[in-house]
Amino acid sequence: MQPINIQAICEYARQFSGLDNEKAALLRKIYPDINTRLEDVSDVFYERLLAIPNTRDFLEGRVESLKSTHVVWLHELFNSDFSEEYTRKLYHVGDVHVQVKLPVEFVAGAMTIIQSELIRIFGEVYADDQAMMLKAIDALNAATGFSLLIMQESYQSSSLAAELDKFLQITGMSRKLFDNLAKAYK
After folding, report:
1. What CA–CA distance (Å, rounded) separates 104 from 112?
2. Which ranges form a coiled coil (predicted)?
3. Separation of alpha carbons 11 and 14, rounded Å
4. pTM of the model
5. Which domains, ranges and CATH numbers included, belong to the chain?
6. pLDDT tens digits, one per residue of 95-120
């Protein structure tokens, strides 16, 4: 298995999402305007997830501990420089989602809930400054898009690795033999 190139993943996600230093700086600038409402975002997020039958089983009995981690991430979303360190952290989140067998669509769906709640708050906070509201939404979309891309990349890699491990166990094939066969067919 090839080592993970976090720098390349970070750069790719930044390009794809349109996240640049200017948008990251804008998120840090608006943070004081919305930071006291991030816990509310997490509350709405988990209320909505608990209302979806397919997600409820993954959450029951764990919501309070998940909320605390989620709120920390929401604060990071507005204070991050979206560096390799942040990328590595989110990549790990994708790995964890695979380990708990969280369906991949939950990640994208969950990000939609977060975005819609934050956009609603931006509408309230910047009701008298439409230009700022639009800039804030643009920066948010870039940051959440970046985050989603990282988690999905991790999810895909971790899922493939888990499937390969199952295949090797079922067949009794060694990893070295598999790698040699894979090289022969390149």
Report:
1. 13
2. none
3. 5
4. 0.82
5. 6-184 (1.10.490.10)
6. 776 666 777 777 888 899 999 999 99
